[in-house]
Amino acid sequence: MSDLTSIKDEAPAVRNEVITDCMLLLCKQKKPEKAVQAAELLAEWATLSNDVYNAACAYSLCIPLVESKETREQYAKRAVQLLRQAAAKGFNEVEKYRQDSDLDALRQHPDFNNFLAEVEKK
């Protein structure tokens, strides 16, 4: 994702907003490989828990865009890992986890349901 790495030195809030917008556009354009590359940059450069949450959402949005069951599983596992990181950084909005349509592809995944149960206990 060399195009986005050029903005690394921008102010974090601006940089992360640009990456988030690009990530979502790539999902809408059905370009999951590029969207998850952007998600990884966002997760790496995250300054806020919301940034990590947005990266997780991108992975979830990409699940239905890939044909390979193996890739869908990889995306689901990475999405849940990122959700765990977001929660550890303070993103504990249980209702958002329950209702955000960006996470719909994860709803039946056991890792997501375990994560949700853990967050609900806190």
Instruction: Work out the helix count.
Output: 7
Distance between the termini: 37 Å
Report strand %: under 5%
Can you count the beta strands? 0
The CATH topology is given as Serine Threonine Protein Phosphatase 5, Tetratricopeptide repeat
Biggest beta sheet attributes: none
Q: Which structural class do you get from the secondary structure elements? A: mainly alpha
Low-confidence stretches: none
Mean pLDDT: 94
CATH architecture: Alpha Horseshoe
Written as H for each helix and E for each strand, in order along the chain, the element string is HHHHHHH
Q: What general outline do the C-alpha atoms trace?
A: globular
CATH class: Mainly Alpha
How many separate domains? 1
Q: How would you describe this structure to a colleague?
A:
- By secondary structure, the protein is mainly alpha-helical.
- The chain has one domain (2-121): Serine Threonine Protein Phosphatase 5, Tetratricopeptide repeat (Alpha Horseshoe).
- Helices cover 71% and strands 0% of the residues.
- It contains seven helices and no strands.
- The protein has helices at 2-5, 12-28, 32-45, 49-62, 69-88, 94-99, 110-121.
- Helix 4 (49-62) packs antiparallel against helix 5.
- The longest helix is centred in the middle third of the chain and has 20 residues, at 69-88.
- It is globular and about 40 Å long.
- The N and C termini lie far apart (37 Å).
- The mean pLDDT is 94.
